[in-house]
# Entry
Amino acid sequence: MKFFIDTANINEIRRAKELGILDGVTTNPSLVSKIGRPYREVLTEVAKEVDGPVSAEVISIEYDGMVKEARDLAKIRDNINIKIPLIEEGLRAVRTLSSEGIKTNVTLCFNSLQALMAAKAGATYISPFIGRLDDIASEGMEVVDEISTIYANYGFETEIIVASIRNPLHIKHAALIGADIATIPFDVFQKIIKHPLTDIGIARFLEDYKKIPK
Ligand code: G3P
# Structure
């Protein structure tokens, strides 16, 4: 399972890199807005920081605008892939971009049929937003399970990025399903490392070590 970090914050990216477990980065306009610097400048900094894939999202929602923006964003660095919203014009853009060798991450996916359409259009990645489905009392992880089955049924190579992850259980369930990638906010990365029994165990070992004759 690959781990991406879902952030545009360079310090968080560096800390995840230092853990030695970082395979890529996903961003979106909301995440970049938190940085308070120009869009392209932030994306350039992020793309230079990592060797793995970095998702950069288009702002247009019309075909021509999406394709133009995508071609421009793809020039930032060769590890950039383009996040395209899962709408009709978006799927057209994905087909065009994939024929030009530009990788795409189809975003804002909320059901498995949308994911099937994205794969048929030639998407490199599909991003089901599971947290946002859970927020409206819909089972986000069921969508991941269905996409995984459908892609396996037909041998689609589109990789599943489990997105809108909010807690460690999301990652566990995604891993049990066998999803290709989880894109994880930095605070959730920290949560999946920690266990209170680990901390208690360390404290006890250190105390007992003091009792060993020197
Ligand atoms: O990768 C998608 C993610 O950024 C959306 O997360 O928490 O805004 O639903 P959230």
About this structure: DSSP finds eleven helices and eight strands in the chain. The mean pLDDT is 97. The radius of gyration is 19 Å. The pocket of SN-glycerol-3-phosphate is lined by residues 6, 26, 28, 129, 131-132, 163-164, 183 (CB under 6 Å).
